[in-house]
Amino acid sequence: MERKITGVAVVLGMTAIILGAFGAHALKKQLTVEELITFETGVKYQLYHALFLLFLGVTTLVTEKSKKTIFQLVVLGVIFFSGSIYVLATKTISGIDFKPLGILTPIGGALLILGWTILLWSILKDKR
């Protein structure tokens, strides 16, 4: 499980850096300042959670079962939260109104919060 978590963490981190550079350079002239800030929010949260998964992959403070649950929540949370932000922030370029996908952003955020909550609970209940 650790190898899988760490591998996904690296992919999320790498793609966050790529998307951040893409936003800073290629999208800078295409998006409004507000849209660019929104896009950057998605990048930041993706990168934060890549680091979170790196920690999760190496920590011995939580059980394998908890690691699996946290991993699934965080990956789905990043896809929903950051993914929906990327799509919504670039709607002027795509010309497609993705407003119905806006509900995915708070759902993704809730999944991320739940992942952190389970980590906290797992650490607190560890009797070692």
UniProtKB/TrEMBL annotation:
Official protein name in the record = DUF423 domain-containing protein
Q: Quick one: where is this thing mainly located? A: membrane
Topology with respect to the bilayer: Multi-pass membrane protein
Q: Where in the cell is it found?
A: Membrane
Q: Name one Pfam family in it.
A: DUF423
Q: Which InterPro entries match?
A: DUF423
The UniProt family comment states: Belongs to the UPF0382 family.
Assigned keywords, A-Z: Membrane, Transmembrane, Transmembrane helix
Q: Where are the transmembrane segments?
A: 7-27, 47-63, 70-89, 101-124
The species this protein belongs to is: Flavobacterium buctense
